[in-house]
Specification:
single chain; about 425 residues; mainly alpha; Rhopdopsin 7-helix transmembrane proteins; 3-stranded antiparallel sheet; 14 helices; 3 strands; globular; disordered C terminus
């Protein structure tokens, strides 16, 4: 009898998980805050303790807001292909906030905790792109839809670049722009660790004989490319994305990931030039810039948590009567990064294939283009007995459908035939 009640209680976790979360968080606050105040009073409650306390208040507000939204998505896990990526994005605020607060509390360990935060930036950008792709592919064939659209031009300052062909090439180029940041950001973080071991990193120093300015430049260019690809993708699919209100989501991602990066670079530059100087003679420029960055992130994450609550709300996914996945499936999906590995491997193969084709003088995307939205798919039969060599066409009476070029020499071109009626095609 008791065993059956316990089992039933566990199966009803959706009813008690939220009260349990509130009770545990309130208990942690009641225990931690008095202990911190007692410890600070023993140390004289200096400026560092004041910074930690103020930042901790903002973190204490930001974390439960985000965790609450994550729990709601887990409870109403009705669209795994979308919510998996939303949950990963929502984890950004707790990771950033706790990370910055730990770096502020333990300055000597800030190098390591900040590196974990930097790596998660790339993961967030990737998941946002996958969220948009899954949303669009659920409603349509995205590549086919883009093929019928007018050409999307590059925007300033890259307006001189050749256009990305609408369709598969456009989607792949946007993916490449995101995935390169997913690879480069952890790579530069690992390089910075190695440089710190050999004392050649020069954190916060804009000198030519240290690695810091070069890694900052690489990260800056990589982030710019990722953001540019997001903007291009949004520009091409603005009408299709309108029902899910993409603009607030774009602003949330841009504000948290990109603004925090440029904020840190700006603070380091001002401290290095002396525009911001430490009031405490025991502080050096590095500790000051790191403390300022971590303190500001703690405050900004509180605002980001509120913005995420409205931008990535769980309410559109509340569907009573819909069969939902288990809590364990939702939780494990958050940490399963096999999709990232597959995408990186796939696009490394695509890039390698593209380079090989270009070396041999062949275009990677060979579907013909016309002046209107249908000429790339259908062209009138012009009385030709056969298409151009290597060109693959259908065998209809009055028109031909162009499917692209045949790249293999083992497949001869398909011959077209005259209409059985003997009449000339229109």
């Amino acid at each position: 009898m008791c065993r059956g009640q316990c089992t039933d209680f566990l199966f009803r976790w959706k009813l008690w998980i939220r009260p349990l979360f509130i009770a545990l968080y309130a208990l942690a606050a009641l225990v931690f805050v008095p202990l911190f105040l007692v410890h600070s009073l023993k140390n004289g409650f200096n400026r560092h303790d004041q910074e930690v306390l103020v930042a901790g208040i903002f973190v204490g507000v930001a974390v439960p807001i985000s965790l609450w939204e994550i729990i709601q998505h887990v409870i109403h896990y009705t669209q795994p292909k979308l919510q998996k990526h939303i949950i990963r994005i929502l984890w950004m605020v707790p990771i950033y906030a706790v990370n910055a607060w730990l770096g502020l509390t333990y300055p000597k360990a800030s190098v390591y905790v900040d590196s974990a935060r930097e790596c998660y930036e790339a993961y967030v950008i990737y998941n946002f792109m996958k969220f948009l792709l899954n949303y669009l592919n659920a409603e349509m064939d995205l590549e086919a839809s883009l093929e019928l659209k007018p050409q999307v031009k590059h925007i300033f300052p890259l307006c001189c670049l050749p256009n990305w062909e609408m369709g598969r090439e456009f989607v792949d180029m946007c993916k490449h722009g995101i995935l390169q940041y997913t690879v480069i950001r952890p790579l530069t973080t690992a390089i910075s660790f190695i440089c710190k071991i050999f004392n050649v990193y020069g954190d916060g120093q804009f000198k030519g004989n240290v690695a810091f300015p070069y890694l900052i430049a690489v990260n800056n260019l990589s982030q710019f490319a990722a953001m540019y690809c997001l903007v291009m993708f949004y520009k091409a699919n603005i009408a299709e994305l309108k029902p899910m209100k993409p603009l607030p989501k774009f602003l949330c991602i841009k504000a948290v990931v990109f603004f925090s990066f440029f904020q840190g670079v700006t603070i380091a530059f001002f401290v290095y030039t002396g525009a911001i100087s430490p009031s405490d003679p025991d502080d050096d420029g590095l500790s000051l810039s790191t403390r300022l960055q971590d303190f500001l992130i703690c405050i900004e994450m509180c605002l980001a948590a509120i913005a995420h609550h409205y931008s990535f709300s769980y309410q559109p996914y509340v569907r009573p009567g819909t069969r939902q996945q288990s809590c364990c499936s939702a939780f494990l999906a958050m940490w399963d990064i096999s999709d990232v590995q597959r995408d990186i491997q796939e696009h490394i193969g695509i890039v390698g294939s593209s380079i090989s084709r270009r070396i041999r003088g062949r275009s990677m995307y060979s579907i013909p283009r016309g002046t209107d939205e249908f000429s790339n798919l259908i062209s009138p039969r012009a009385g030709q007995s056969a298409p151009a060599p290597g060109f693959y066409q259908s065998d209809y009476d009055d028109f031909v459908i162009n499917y692209g070029t045949v790249t293999s020499t083992s497949h001869p071109p398909v011959q077209t035939h005259q209409s059985q009626t003997g009449q000339k095609p229109v």
